[in-house]
C-alpha cells in the first residue's frame, strides 16, 4: 500500500497555510466584486448538485485551486446570494471585512472554551463583549456581569429560547414538583417567531399549553397587556401556571413591536418569566432614538439579539443576556469529574464555565469575532450602518405610499417595509393572486429577492433593507423592478 501524499500527512502545515488561505481570500474578494451579477435567488432544480458530484468521496486529495474552480462552477450557481446588494428577503445576514477577520481568527485559533481553563481569555473576552453589548443597547445594570446578570454568545435565537425556557421551567418546577410540567403555560403573539413553539415543545411544555394571542392593526400588531392579562387570568382560574411570556421587538413578518413595559408588569404580577426577543431589531437599539422600544427591560428576565443579522457580524452569533444567570445554569449545568478545573479552586468564584449557559458542551470562540467588529467599526460606525439602512427603507416606504396602485400595509418599523399591489378595481382574492404573481416575477428576474407574509388574510410583500453592500441605487432599482413587473401583470389582466 502506497504512502499518503505529504500534504495529507501535515494538514496544518504553516508553510502552505498562508498560500492556500490567501487563495480563498482572493476567491471571496472576486465573489464580492461580482456578486451582483448572479441571480439573487437560486434558480436550480432539486438534486442538481448530487448529479454533478461523484457518489463517493475522493481517494486522493486535490489542490486548493482545483477545489475553488469547482466551487465557482458547481456551487455558486446553486446558491441564493445573501450578500447580494439586492437581497431584501427574510432579514439580513450581515457580513463584513471585520466580521470575516474575526471569523478567521475564531476558526484559525480553533479553541473550545467550554470551561474557563480550556481557554481563560476566550471566556473572559466573551464576558467583556456581552457587557459591551448590554451597554450599547442601553440595558439596565442587572443584565451586566457587574450587576449580577450576564450574557453568552449562542449560535442562534433558537438556542437562546430553549435555554431560557428550560431555566423558567426548572424555576417553576422547583416549587411545583416535576409532575407540575403539565400545568405550565407559555404565551406569545400571533406575530411571534415559531421558534418559541418549537422551544416549548423541546423543553416538554404540552402543545395545548402554548397560547398564541391575537394582535390587531389597532396596536400595530404588537401584543398588548390587556390580551395577555385576560389569557393568564383564564389559565390561573383553570389551575394552570403562567410560565413564560415572549415580548418581541421587531417581529419577523411585519416588524411589529410589543409593549415591553406593559407586558413586564403583567409578567411580574404572576411570577412569569419575560423574555424580550429582539433578534433583528435589537441592533437598532444601539441608536438612542430607538432605545425607547426596549423601555421596561428592567422588568425582563432575559433578552436576545442577533449580531449576525444586522450588526456586521458574520454567521453565527446570538447575544443572550440574562438578569439571573443562576436560574439558567441550574437548569443546564453538568459537573463530570473530567471537566473539573483542577488546581484552580481559589479562582473559581470569579470564573464562568460557559458550558453551563448553553445546550451543547462544545462551543466556538465567537467572542473574538464580535470583539473585532466592535473594535474595527466602533459604536459610531455601527450606528451609521443602521441609520443608513433605515433611511433607505424610509425612502422606499414613501414612494410606495405615493403610488396609488400600491399600499403600505403596516407603518414601517426599522428597515422593513411591508406593502402590496392594490389596484382599486380588483376584488380581494384577485389582489392576493396578483401579489403572489408579482413576488414570483420579481424573484424569477434574478434582479432582486424578497419574501412575503400573510396578515389579516392579506398577502404582503416584505422588503427588508440591511445588506452590507446595499446602496440607495439598489433600493431604487428594486422599486423600478416592482413597477415594471406590476405594469406587465396589470396589462395582461393577471
Automatic annotation (TrEMBL):
Pfam families: Pyridoxal_deC. GO terms for cellular component: cytoplasm. GO terms for molecular function: carboxy-lyase activity; pyridoxal phosphate binding. Its cofactor is pyridoxal 5'-phosphate. Keywords: Decarboxylase, Lyase, Pyridoxal phosphate. GO terms for biological process: amino acid metabolic process; carboxylic acid metabolic process. The keyword Lyase applies. The keyword Lyase applies. The modification N6-(pyridoxal phosphate)lysine is found at residue 309. Belongs to the group II decarboxylase family. This is Tyrosine decarboxylase.
